[in-house]
Structures are given as C-alpha cells and as structure tokens.
Write a structure and sequence with these properties.
It is a single chain. Helices cover about 30% and strands about 15% of the residues. The protein is of the alpha/beta class and about 300 residues long. A 7-stranded parallel β-sheet has the order 8-7-6-9-10-11-12, with helices on both faces. A 5-stranded parallel β-sheet has the order 2-1-3-4-5, with helices on one face. The longest helix is centred in the first third of the chain and has 19 residues, at about 90-110. It binds NADP nicotinamide-adenine-dinucleotide phosphate. The site of NADP nicotinamide-adenine-dinucleotide phosphate has 30 residues, from helix 4.
Length: about 300
C-alpha cells in the first residue's frame, strides 16, 4: 500500500486530503495517508504546496513522485533535495477558472465597461459603441495549459488572437509566434495583452520598459501569470504617461500585496488578490490520483516539470 504524505498547510490538508484519498480509491489505488512526522524513508508520494512544512526532501529516499497542488512550481523547482519527479497541477477547474477570469477582464477592456458605467449621468453618448471583437487584436504570452485555453476562448469570442511560447506551437485559430522576433510581433499588435508565463529566470522582467513600449498606445494588460514577469517600475511609468491605459494584476512579487503598495491606489490599475484560478479539490483530486495510479503501474507521469526549463 503506497504511503502518501501531505506537505501542505492545515486548510489545504482538510480540503484536499479526503477527496484525494477517495479519488485514489476510485482509481484502484488504496493509499495510506501519513502525517508530516512520518519517517520520510517510508513515504512513496508527497502532495505538496509552497506553504507546506517539508523543505528538505533528502531523507525521502523511496519517493516515486512529488505532486504539486499548484500550477506554478517556481518555489519547488530549484529544491535540490527533491530528487523525485515533480509534477505540477493541470486541472480542468483551474483552466476553466483562468479562462473565465481572462475572458471577463478582456471583455471589460474591449467593451469599455468602465467608461460605460461612468457614463450613467443623463448624457446620451452613442460614441460608446464598442468595436467588434474581430477588430481587436489580443496577445497571449504563454500557450501552455492555461494560456492555450484562454487564447482559444478569446478566439471563440471573435478576438484576433496571437500567442507566444518558448517553442513553436500550432493552435487552431491562434497566430502562434515564438522567439524574440515573435515576441516583438505579438507585442506590437496586442491592444489587450494577457501574460500567462511561468516564473523562471528566463521570464523575469520579460516585460521591461523596452518591451512595454512596443505595445500599441493605450494598450491594456492582464497579468494572472506571475508578478515577476513585469518590471514594476516600468509598468508604473508606462501607466503614468498613459502609454499603457490600464493593467489588471492578479499576481505580485510579494503576496499578499502590502496595503500601502502603489498598485492599490493607482487609478489605472485593478488589483485582484491572486484569485484568477484556484485549484479545486473536486477537479484536482482525480489528477493527483491518476498520477499515483500511473506511477504504481510504471506508466509515464502526467504534467512532469522540466527542471532545466524551470516549469
Ligand atoms: N493567478 C492564478 O490564480 C494562477 C493560477 C494558476 C497558474 N498561474 C500561473 O500561470 C502560469 C502558467 O500556467 P500553465 O499551466 O499554462 O503553464 P504551462 O502549461 O507550463 O505553460 C507555460 C507556457 O509558457 C511558455 N514559456 C515558458 N517559458 C517561456 C519563455 N522563456 N519564453 C516564452 N515562452 C515561455 C511555455 O512555452 P512552451 O509551450 O514552449 O513550453 C508554455 O507555453 C503558471 O506558471 C503560474 O505562474 C496563475
């Protein structure tokens, strides 16, 4: 019977523990849960989140896999004590949540909803009629599990979507680019830019002053990826001059975003508290269970992290 340890916080243990064990049973694997004080040498799988207590995995000598509850693994990927395969979370609930968040905020910008809501003052303004989505170029940086789903949803809404990834990709309806030249091409077009890249050394401050300046005048930015993707000072400068019209930020270098941070009070920034997409027990538990089933059966694991690429 494989032993399963949860290196997560108390709340996560209560929410995810029972559904994961149940999903394992449904997948035909009877897993024995063990607490964080269990002898590490006897543990076969660790379900983990960045808030979890275990930092040093060097004594987890029989670990078959480390299974992250989070999609973003930047706080785990560099852990040299973790020798076992690391899998990140790719879960339908997470993907749906992110798609809805991105579509909602993109439509807010596209339809000019802020101006519409502010115009409820007795003055009839036909100029508020928005363009059609097919007249609006949108860029999506990152075409992975989340970025590709968001790009596809935006394309279904009619937007002209171009996307950017590290390696060449083909996605129906999306103009896919890669490499430095491709990045410039996407940025130059994107009236609305969505950033869904992971935090890695290669993506840190990707959107610096030079690259932000490539965006069309008055572009809008939606960042549910990671705070480190954007140079904060360059972003504030672009917003202050109006080169960038507005930014919706869900993720930050320091979370929770400190109460006094300029982002909170900036008239051209909407802050959301890392709520774009949550891992949900009902949809995530079967993903964890499926990977345990696969490992027990000697099959290839799903959603393996490429430790060299950092995601
Ligand atoms: N705000 C929230 O609530 C929330 C929730 C979940 C996740 N997230 C964030 O969303 C991120 C993306 O998640 P995901 O599941 O879509 O990840 P993923 O499947 O690993 O996709 C990552 C995408 O980024 C691209 N990429 C990575 N490094 C790059 C580079 N240096 N240059 C160009 N493209 C690069 C990848 O290119 P390839 O296609 O070539 O590999 C891939 O298309 C996570 O890492 C996390 O930070 C946020």
């Amino acid at each position: 019977m494989p032993r399963l340890m949860f290196s997560v916080d108390e709340d996560e243990a209560a929410r995810f523990g029972p559904p994961i064990l149940q999903a394992c049973r449904a997948a035909g694997v009877e897993a024995e849960p063990c607490g964080p004080d269990h002898p590490p040498e006897q543990v076969d799988y660790v379900v983990l989140s960045p808030a979890g207590p275990v930092r040093d995995f060097s004594r987890f000598t029989r670990l078959s896999a480390a299974l992250s509850l989070w999609a973003g693994v930047e706080r785990l990927v560099g852990n040299r004590t973790l020798a076992a395969p690391l899998c990140r979370m790719v879960d339908p609930g997470l993907t749906e949540g992110m798609t809805e968040y991105v579509a909602g905020h993109a439509l807010r910008y596209h339809l000019g909803l802020d101006a519409v809501l502010a115009a409820q003052d007795g003055d009839w303004r036909p100029e508020l009629v928005p363009p059609l989505a097919r007249e609006r170029p949108v860029g999506v940086l990152g075409l992975g599990a989340l970025g590709a789903a968001c790009a596809a949803a935006l394309s279904r809404l009619g937007f002209r979507v171009c996307g950017w990834s590290r390696r060449p990709r083909k996605i129906d309806g999306i103009d896919c680019r890669h490499g430095e030249v491709g990045l410039g091409e996407v940025l130059r077009r994107a009236e609305i830019l969505v950033t869904l890249l992971p935090e890695t050394p290669a993506t840190e401050n990707l959107l610096d002053a030079t690259r932000l300046a490539l965006l069309p005048p008055g572009a809008r930015l939606i960042n549910p990826g990671r705070g480190t993707l954007i140079d904060d000072e360059a972003l504030l400068a672009a917003l202050d001059t109006g080169a960038l019209a507005h930014a919706t930020l869900d993720v930050f270098r320091n979370e929770p975003l400190p109460p006094g941070h300029r982002f909170w009070s900036h008239p051209r920034i909407t802050v959301t508290p890392h709520i774009a997409a949550a891992t949900r027990p009902a949809t995530a538990a079967p993903v964890i269970a499926e990977n345990i089933r696969r490992a027990e059966a000697g099959l290839e694991l799903l959603h393996l992290v490429d430790r060299d690429a950092g995601y």
